[in-house]
Amino acid sequence: MLTYRQSGSGPAVVLLHGFPLSHAIWEHQIAALSGTYRVIAPDLPGMGGSALLPEGEASMARYAREVLNLVDSLGVGPFALAGHSMGGYVALALQKEAPQRVAGLGLVASQAGADTPEGREGRFATAEKVRAEGPGVVAGAMGPKLFGSGVTPEDPRYRQVDAIMRGTAPEGIRAALFAMAGREDMQPRLPTIGGPALVLAGEQDKIIPVEKAETVAANLKAATLVKLPCGHMPMLEEPEATSAALSRWLSLVF
Ligand code: MLT
């Protein structure tokens, strides 16, 4: 079972973190939303406090199944589901597996396509380096790309994210890299996804360019696109605006 943070009561919203992070990135949003909603923020397998899956079993669909097992164990019916980056890939996989459970979908600094062949090769090369050298490889490569202008390596938010990445088990990082490399192209499914959707993107995102979010929003049935002046980590860089966007979206969902 996944470890998770739960706060508040009311209609349920599940927040999924990105790679290779933990529920801790959502602290501001958990505090802001839990006055009105039951907020559930799990750690995906092999990240945060959650155990690794058996070797070779990681996939976006399997991560989604683990999230469903968690919400089932908590007795949650239909819920709003928002995912950050890789968490968005998991959210799309969960929506495919159990569309009737997802009352509304939120994608934060994410995208719906699969990896390109070069992207996949890059993931395999990174996985190999992580095996040899540990999680610092990913922290060192991703850290400088995660934030928009104005967040330096001395910034507490940079340090928080850096510490989470460096504290993640190498096997958890490698499993997530292979799972992302193998993920399905969800773009053809976007027009079939029901319920109010939120697509939130950072205008300075160096990992997933804002154009990807624009494409996702244009293809979803009922999406609101929100662009914020930040990088890949809107929940930390623009916490109030991110919480406000989630809150507006949730008021449409429930
Ligand atoms: C993430 O932030 O979750 C990942 O960087 C997404 C990706 O690598 O595709």
| Widest beta sheet: strand line-up | 1-3-2-4-5-6-7
Please indicate the percent range of residues in DSSP E strands (runs of 2 or more): 15-25%
Largest sheet features: 7 strands, mixed
| Head-to-tail CA distance between termini | 27 Å
- Oligomerization state of this entry? single chain
Structural class: alpha/beta
Number of continuous helical runs: 10
Q: Could you describe the 3D structure shown?
A:
With 254 residues, the chain is an alpha/beta fold. 44% of the residues lie in helices and 15% in strands. Strands 1-3-2-4-5-6-7 form a 7-stranded mixed β-sheet, with helices on both faces. Strand 4, helix 3 and strand 5 (102-108) form a beta-alpha-beta unit. Residues 18-19, 85-86, 180, 207 line the site of D-malate (MLT).
Structure characteristics:
254 residues; alpha/beta; 10 helices; 7 strands; 44% helix; binds D-malate
Question: What is the strand and helix layout of this fold?
Answer:
Layout: E1 4-7, E2 12-16, H1 27-33, E3 38-42, H2 60-73, E4 79-84, H3 86-97, E5 102-108, H4 117-133, H5 136-146, H6 156-166, H7 170-181, E6 197-202, H8 210-219, E7 223-228, H9 234-237, H10 239-253
Parallel strand pairs: 2-3, 2-4, 4-5, 5-6, 6-7
Antiparallel strand pairs: 1-3
Helix pairs in contact: 1-10, 2-3, 4-7, 5-6
Residues 18-19, 85-86, 180, 207 line the site of D-malate (MLT).
